[in-house]
From TrEMBL:
It comes from Desulfotignum phosphitoxidans DSM 13687. Its main location: membrane. Keywords: Cell membrane, Membrane, Transmembrane, Transmembrane helix, Transport. GO terms for molecular function: transmembrane transporter activity. This is Choline/glycine/betaine transporter OpuD. It comes from the Bacteria. It is a multi-pass membrane protein. The chain crosses the membrane at residues 35-53, 73-92, 113-133, 167-185, 213-237, 249-267, 279-299, 338-360, 372-398, 418-446, 467-486, 492-516. GO terms for cellular component: plasma membrane. InterPro entries: BCCT_transptr.
Length: 526
């Protein structure tokens, strides 16, 4: 009788252990099943539409995007200005010394490692892609009254680039990251975008339908944004590989390279923040600085210094005007320029707030509110000014001197800019190899950060999600990039994420209200 009971117990244990659900739970760890499956189904549908009708899907989304950028210009400008104002208030106001964590918490990462990871998530390969191309576009197609291609258009081109990559976008990231980090680390809440609403929703935060919707939008924006970035990043790497090795990247080779990238960033993500991502970000930070220093010292150094002073002066002098300029009389390119550039950028950065803000929050335990704002808004903005002056300034000066026909090259292939510029420099080929390696690492660290963040969301805000969860969403990111790159559906996915930016601004407004309430309550307890 006893043997029969033992055998039955063993049989029951085996049956329980072999159930698919239990195996899946062990592989994925703690899981928000509703969010997990809804997100997965949405992207399966998007991938299907992207394969079967990419042109129709892209056209429909572009009509919607054009409507938003045309009719909500005023709103995007005011909203972005409000986020910048909130960041200034948080850094200088009465709550600036509050900690993102308990009062005795120390920073989890060194300042240099923190900054390196912050840059990897917040900038990624976008700067290498646009650092040459954008200033050239504004130099040849300036909207602010200067004659295109003229000497007076040079500092104007750089001041516009500073606007699009400086204080404004980083303040958007700061608002998103600060709300999540503050309530997660100080109030022991899950590391999700919904946690930033804790000051309003209180203990109902996890169960509120608004919180669930916010987490869904975060997952969508992150996967859509990074899948697009992976696909577009491959285009830069494609040109770089051909330029350096002479090897043409056929569609088959492109897929193979993307699979290698997928394996690399999944391995990095599984190894954890304190190993793979931290060290790769540090390596890339120094590598990028080495290339920037090379261009600065090997190029027209004195002219770049003068141009930096001139362009920063233009930027600061016209800061308020540029912040609120809506082109109400439709003067710049028949009123289309603002929608093409500034409003598009604000929507693009807002779409990335869930990912970048969420990731910055995860690595910011132990910092004060003031320290967080200074390092997330002020320092990256100054670095961007320097980088755009060196990359963009050198590109414009090379174009003006006739050393390289960069404008023609960039119009033909956006990814060619940095490689073409370096052909005008001694040892430029060596610098091209360094840039190529930097592009690869930026691509890996961006995807690593994204898969880590999505895994956290799907794991109900766990700070260290299971390796299985990271693998699943790392594969989803890479697979989506491969499918849509081959079917020309990447543009549609990018447009979809930007369209989602408009409703997400309402979440960010709620975040700011939530933080003010949370700060006041915590200060009252002291």
């Amino acid at each position: 009788m006893e043997q029969t009971s033992v055998a039955k117990d063993r049989s029951d244990m085996l049956t329980r252990d072999e159930k698919p659900g239990s195996v899946l739970e062990r592989f994925l760890g703690k899981t928000d099943h509703q969010l997990f499956w809804i997100t997965l189904v949405i992207f399966i549908i998007i991938a299907g539409l992207g394969v079967m009708a990419p042109d129709r899907l892209a056209a429909a989304l572009q009509v919607l995007q054009a409507f938003i950028t045309t009719h909500f210009t005023w709103y995007y400008l005011l909203f972005t200005a409000a986020c910048l104002g909130f960041s200034l208030w948080a850094a200088a106001g009465p709550y600036a010394k509050l900690k993102l964590g308990k009062d005795d918490d120390e920073p989890e990462f060194s300042t240099m490692a923190w900054l390196a990871m912050l840059f990897s998530a917040g900038i990624g390969l976008g700067f290498i892609f646009w650092g040459i191309a954008e200033p050239l576009y504004h130099y040849m197609q300036t909207p602010y009254g200067a004659e295109p291609g003229s000497a007076e258009a040079v500092p104007v081109a750089l001041q516009i680039s500073y606007l699009h990559w400086g204080f404004h976008p980083w303040s958007l990231y700061a608002v998103g990251g600060l709300g999540i980090a503050y309530f997660s680390f100080r109030h022991d809440q899950p590391m999700t975008i919904a946690t930033s609403l804790y000051g309003i929703l209180g203990e109902k935060t996890e169960t509120s339908p608004w919180s669930k919707l916010a987490n869904l939008v975060t997952a969508f924006a992150t996967i859509a944004g990074i899948s697009t970035a992976l696909g577009l990043g491959i285009l830069s790497i494609k040109f770089g590989m051909t330029h350096i090795t002479g090897i043409e990247m056929t569609p088959g080779v492109t897929v193979f390279v993307l699979i290698l990238f997928m394996a690399a960033y999944i391995a990095s993500s599984v190894s954890g923040l304190k190993r793979g991502l931290k060290y790769m970000s540090l390596i890339n930070l120094w590598l990028a600085f080495a290339v920037i220093a090379f261009i600065f010292f090997a190029g027209p150094t004195l002219q770049l210094l003068d141009l930096f002073t001139d362009s920063v002066g233009h930027y600061l002098t016209n800061f308020v005007t540029m912040t609120f300029w809506s082109d109400s009389m439709d003067q710049a390119f028949d009123g289309k320029w603002l929608g093409w550039w500034t409003v598009f950028y604000w929507a693009f950065w807002i779409a990335w707030v869930p990912f970048v803000g969420g990731f910055i929050a995860r690595i910011s335990r132990g910092r004060t509110v003031r320290e967080f704002i200074l390092w997330v808004v002020l320092i990256p903005s100054i670095v961007m000014f320097i980088c755009f002056d060196i990359f963009g300034g050198a590109a414009i000066l090379a174009e003006r001197s006739g050393a390289v026909e960069l404008w023609k090259a960039v119009q033909a292939d956006m990814g060619s800019g940095i490689f073409m510029l370096l052909t005008a420099y001694p040892f430029g080929f060596l610098a091209s190899i360094m840039i190529f390696v930097s592009l690869i690492i930026f691509l890996i660290t961006s995807a690593d950060s994204a898969s880590f963040l999505v895994a956290m969301l799907m794991s109900k805000g766990e700070l260290e999600p299971k390796a299985g969860m990271k693998i699943v969403w790392g594969v989803v990111l890479g697979s989506l990039s491969i499918i849509l790159l081959q079917s020309d559906g990447l543009k549609a996915l990018q447009t979809a994420s930007i369209v989602c930016a408009l409703p997400f601004t309402l979440v960010m407004i709620a975040m700011m209200v939530s933080m003010v309430k949370g700060f006041r309550k915590d200060r009252a307890k002291e």
